[in-house]
Amino acid sequence: MTGIRDIYDSLAARYETRWSTYIGRSVSATLQRAPVKKGELAIDVGCGTGALLRELIARGVRAIGVDISLGMLARAKSSPAPLVAADAENLPFRAGLVDIVFTASSFHFWPHPARGLEEIRRVLKGGGQLVITDWCDDYFACRLCNAYLRFREPTYHKIFSRDECVAMLEQSGFRILRIDRYKISWLWGLMTAVAAVEKV
Known about the structure:
Layout: H1 2-18, H2 20-33, E1 41-45, H3 51-58, E2 62-67, H4 70-75, E3 83-85, E4 98-104, H5 113-123, E5 124-135, H6 140-152, H7 162-171, E6 174-183, E7 189-197
């Protein structure tokens, strides 16, 4: 993950300005579909500059930001949430601690998504939920973007289709509650999956 860390360290200073419309719309779309409750403990994996964190805190959620990029975390300090430098495969939290885990627009960079999902499942409470928002390969423009990035960027992994996302979540022991595909612009087609860990 060193390569992607370096890339986002270099992008951090201009990230929210450059992608402000995308960030605003994707965060809004995620929260419209997420079952957040005041007082819950949430982790935002791949929190970036903290846009989603700030919205969670505003809703009374006790949120923690996690990112591998120190540059991004430095920008996320504008949020009142605690911040942790870590990646999805090695979350520094005890098992069964967290009510809900978010990851928005980072899943396609995970080199081993099944390992990340396993680690998220470990830290979630029984009945806890995972919310993934990411680019969706079911949209033609996203497929083009997928092909371009896989050719140009060696740290990039893969954009998944809705069915691929469902299969990975189910194989990792999650129960799908909902998965929506939608567009936030003429270009960006996203999906948001909400999945739960079974209560013990």
